[in-house]
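tokens incoming
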């Protein structure tokens, strides 16, 4: 099939140019922040926050437009309150929210290219509006011929090429920022690169989910309170991951859980026990346990999803 849905060389060059301008602006903004903080340049707090906040808003706007590695970088940076000014991290936190969905035609193109058949032949039904969209892909609800409820996770067409550009720009950014920040910031590149490459391989993610399920099921009491989606390998490839669809409420949605009579504290305890089991017994664990990946299903079990980072 044609690669018409993938970014052109011109689009990738434009992406690199925009990211380079963002890096230069970021380096300059951070340098000015350090100079003012050390008293070498007299400016009031409002002046400084306006410039730092302005850069952060531009970063978020561009990250939402370009997606890929930029969103991941922003998410990581939002946690580095020890290095990055608070006014900036407060803006970067917005990248934890859901991003705009990709056009349905491109998602259907990716599924057909990966599975070798049109969407309407692969699935009995396929909802046009995604239930979740993120930096690298999005999830659609579907059913198969036997009526099973499915979640179909699809990698955006051409995202690998976009991420490759992003990683080159991140490496350049770290080279520019290295004289300004603590040396441990360099570790971000390796973590980000490994994370992004792993998250773009859905076969790897499916195998990780099955491995975690097998490990946790050894503790029958614990596993009776947990749920990990079953992978449907017949409609899974490197860029399409099909699994059972699990309905529920986020583990931090206290109001919704209380309305269902769920003991939130108990649910959190089972989730905590599950992650301690992974870390200290199995030495293989889910590395992204935020509320979007943890929820309580209709039977009151703690569901764990999204095993791209492990």
């Amino acid at each position: 099939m044609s690669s018409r849905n993938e970014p052109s060389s011109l689009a990738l060059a434009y992406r690199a140019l925009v990211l380079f301008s963002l890096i230069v602006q970021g380096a300059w903004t951070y340098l000015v922040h350090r100079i003012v903080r050390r008293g070498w340049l007299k400016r009031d707090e409002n002046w400084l926050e306006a410039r730092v906040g302005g850069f952060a808003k531009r970063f978020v706007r561009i990250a939402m437009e370009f997606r890929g590695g930029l969103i991941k970088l922003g998410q990581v940076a939002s946690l580095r309150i020890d290095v990055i000014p608070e006014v900036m991290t407060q803006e970067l936190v917005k990248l934890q929210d859901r991003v705009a969905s990709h056009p349905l035609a491109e998602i259907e193109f990716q599924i057909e290219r990966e599975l070798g058949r049109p969407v309407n032949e692969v699935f009995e039904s396929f909802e046009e509006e995604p239930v979740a969209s993120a930096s690298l892909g999005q999830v659609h609800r579907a059913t198969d011929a036997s009526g099973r409820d499915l979640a179909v996770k699809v990698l955006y067409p051409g995202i690998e090429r976009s991420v490759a550009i992003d990683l080159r720009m991140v490496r350049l950014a770290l080279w520019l920022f290295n004289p300004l920040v603590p040396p441990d910031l360099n570790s971000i590149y390796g973590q980000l690169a490994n994370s992004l490459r792993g998250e773009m391989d859905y076969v790897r993610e499916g195998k990780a989910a099955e491995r975690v399920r097998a490990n946790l099921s050894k503790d029958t009491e614990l596993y009776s309170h947990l749920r990990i989606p079953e992978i449907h390998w017949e409609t899974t490839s490197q860029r399409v991951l099909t699994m059972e669809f699990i309905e529920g409420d986020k583990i931090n949605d206290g109001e919704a859980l209380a309305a269902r009579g769920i003991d939130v504290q108990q649910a959190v305890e089972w989730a905590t026990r599950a992650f301690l089991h992974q870390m200290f017994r199995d030495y293989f664990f889910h590395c992204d346990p935020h509320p979007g990946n943890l929820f309580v299903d209709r039977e009151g079990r703690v569901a764990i999803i999204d095993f791209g980072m492990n």
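note: The two ends are 32 Å apart (CA to CA).
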